[in-house]
Write a structure and sequence with these properties.
The complex is a heterodimer. By secondary structure, chain A is an all-beta fold. Chain A contains no helices and eleven strands. In chain A, strands 2, 4, 5, 6, 9, 10 and 11 form a seven-stranded mixed β-sheet that branches. In chain A, strands 1-3-8-7 form a four-stranded antiparallel β-sheet, with no helix packed on it. Chain A is globular, with a radius of gyration of 13 Å. By secondary structure, chain B is mainly beta. In chain B, 0% of the residues lie in helices and 55% in strands. Chain B contains no helices and eleven strands. The chains are: A mainly beta, B mainly beta.
């Protein structure tokens, strides 16, 4: 399977704990995106990387959120001091760097903060 | 502000008929538009896209139409099949960052 892979698929955590999610993009894709989706909404952009450089961060990404993509391969998204409002599906996508090409999504990580 | 809008939260269509899903956008700088399909507990799956230099793109049963003057695009599915039942998201892009609508749930019944 050469698609976008996300781990874990599900995460339940207590409020105040830190969580980290991993995304492995399609190998030849140099752009990697993180999105968040809540019930009844479309995916909302959080941040994206070109290779190892983080090019843009959404205002949705508070100081408790940090994303990395060391060596331009896999990426991690960490949420510190989780809050109940962080409960959502976190989606990762990757694409080639050419303009006007489609992004391919992973199956997402469902986070539940209790 | 919602730059990409899907005003119909749901649509029900009989198998074999045409499904038409609509999407409106506000930012005239968007130059690339996509439709994704999503099943529960899965990530979105790419369906079809269109560049702003075109007004139509077709792929099998799926056709996307773009009306730039009206800032409107639509996805036509002909003929609709029960397996098409899912949530459909339109997305728009200018700088390679996708902005999604809120989705339309399509149900195709026998």
């Amino acid at each position: 399977d050469t698609g976008v892979s996300q781990d874990p698929r599900h995460k339940i955590t207590k409020r105040g704990q830190n969580v980290t999610f991993r995304c492995d993009p399609i190998s030849e894709h140099n752009r990697l995106y993180w999105y968040r989706q809540t019930l009844g909404q479309g995916p909302e952009f959080l941040t994206y990387f070109q290779n190892e450089a983080q090019l843009e961060k959404s205002r949705l990404l508070s100081d408790r959120f940090s994303a990395e993509r060391p060596k331009g391969s896999f990426s991690t998204l960490e949420i510190q001091r989780t809050e109940q409002g962080d409960s959502a599906m976190y989606l990762c996508a990757s694409k080639k760097g050419h303009p006007n090409t489609e992004a391919f999504f992973g199956q997402g990580t469902r986070l539940t903060v209790v | 502000d919602q730059q990409v809008k899907q005003n119909s939260p749901s649509l029900s269509v009989q198998e074999g008929r045409i499904s038409i899903l609509n999407c409106d956008y506000t930012n005239s700088m968007f130059d690339y538009f996509l439709w994704y399909k999503k099943y529960p507990a899965e990530g979105p799956t790419f369906l079809i896209s269109i560049s702003s230099i075109k007004d139509k793109n077709e792929d099998g049963r799926f056709t996307v139409f773009l009306n730039k003057s009206a800032k409107h695009l639509s996805l036509h599915i002909v003929p609709s099949q029960p397996g098409d039942s899912a949530v459909y998201f339109c997305a728009a892009s200018r700088t390679d960052k996708l902005i999604f609508g809120t989705g339309t749930r399509l149900q195709v019944f026998p």
